[in-house]
Amino acid sequence: MKRRVAILISGRGSNMAALIEAARPADFPAEIVVVISNRADAGGLERARAAGIPAVTIESKPFGKDRAAFEAALQAALDQHRVELICLGGFMRLFTAEFVQRWYGRMLNIHPSLLPSFPGLDPQGQALRAGVKISGATVHFVIPETDAGPIVMQGAVAVADGDTAETLAARILGVEHRIYPEALRLLAGGRARLDGDICRTEGSAEAGGVLISPPVT
Ligand code: GAR
User: Fold this and answer.
1) Domain check: are 93 and 6 in the same one?
2) Ligand 1 centroid to 107 CA: how many Å?
3) Both 199 and 155 in a single domain?
4) Which domain holds residue 64?
5) What is the per-residue pLDDT across 7-23, written as a single tens digit (0 to 9) for each?
């Protein structure tokens, strides 16, 4: 049985599109059953509908600081679609600890840095200002702290001297689109499990490969 997944977005939804595409094959262990945006102007809504996925808006703005009331509306939509797993894809609204607890171990987020480095806003700019030579993207389980939680998968890119936040973001985004579907595949297929604060993954013992930056000759 495929696990039923909701993708929550606030913007263009390129990670959403990558997840929808990856979930098409019959042997993928999850199906995207609904896309939910907290903003009516999110470009991803149209993209989702074009892909044949139900897309709904639950505006968070009218709820103001009443996060619990917004989450009650969100939970009702998740219940209606019998959602089992949530993927956040550029969802820019913080949750209450209660909502996070309810979905603990069943809600993933993606962030464009190698966490725990550079959580929060402008992670690519933060990486450039820190002068790191390698950055990347992280898929993690959601905990109450922003851009933190047990790490499911990471992908790395080399940082070049000439990079701007935009060029680095574009390269990292390419990695995001590769790792998010694979992380969902692991979770939905029961091959990623939580061991305290650590996520253990089947097959990780065979991990290989190194990335050295700048390259040495
Ligand atoms: C992605 O780069 C994602 O990693 C980032 O927002 C972007 C959404 O793009 N998320 C965060 O920064 C979370 N703190 P998308 O709408 O095209 O997927």
Assistant:
1) yes
2) 15
3) yes
4) 1-103
5) 999 999 999 999 999 99
CATH of the domain at 17: 3.40.50.170
Closest Cα to atom 11 of ligand 1:
111
Which of these, 3, 207, 20, 1, lies nearest to 105 by C-alpha position?
3
What's the CA gap between 67 and 92, in Å, rounded?
13
Cα within 13 Å of Cα(55), Cβ side? 24
Any catalytic annotation for residue 177? no
Q: Are residues 29 and 121 in the same domain?
A: no
Per-residue pLDDT at 204? 74
Choose which residue among 14, 113, 115, 118 to substitute to test ligand 1 binding: the one with the highest number of ligand atoms within 8 A of its C-beta: 14
Within-domain flag for 214: no
Q: Tell me the pLDDT band of 206, cut-offs 50, 70 and 90.
A: low
Facing residues of 135 across strands?
157
Overall pTM surpassing 0.85 (yes/no): yes
